[in-house]
Amino acid sequence: MKEYHVNSIGTKEQIPNEKSSLKFFEKANCLTDFCSPWNNDSLSKIEFRALSDHENFYFNFRVFDTDIYLDQKDDSFDSIGNSDRVELFFRTNENLNPYYCLEIDTSGRIMDFKAYPNKDFDFDWKWPEKELKVETSRDQTSFIVSGSISLQSLKDLNLIENNTIEAGVFRAKFSLVQNLQYEPTWISWINPNTETPNFHIASSFGKFKLV
């Protein structure tokens, strides 16, 4: 199973206030080995970084793509699900019983839900209030999605064991094909080795090691 080492940023007094900035993530390892096994087109570069302190897990996606599609008909999960976004999944065990999904579009809208095997989704479930924060931004070459998740919420959901979090890291890229129709390209840190795109499977997860 692939591993990503989440570096510690030390004591609270050493932590910069601007937690979404690239400067904040200077000490983080940069994960770039993403793939789309079901699509032969070239992919925009994705940089994922994560850090932790004694209270929070911090994450940062930087996607080098300015051709962004955002479905703005409303703020429903359907609208988020039809938009360019990044995703983090966390599982309690290899049986995916349960696992938790965070899907965040480029405007900062969050689709958070609890899931069980065979894509049994509980969309009424929400990440514990005030335990998740998200920010987004754009520049001339990329968009950024950053956030923090309290370690306490991860522990309460049984998602940390021996300083390890089992997680999936994904992106959905929507492109115009014809007649104003957009179709997604599914991008993953781990190749799940499935014939068709599927992130909701045990083989799509790796390990975050808190170091």
From TrEMBL:
Residues 42-211 form the Carbohydrate-binding domain. InterPro entries: Carb-bd_dom_fam9. One of its GO terms (molecular function) is carbohydrate binding. SUPFAM superfamilies: CBD9-like. GO terms for biological process: carbohydrate catabolic process. Coiled coil: none annotated. This is Carbohydrate family 9 binding domain-like.
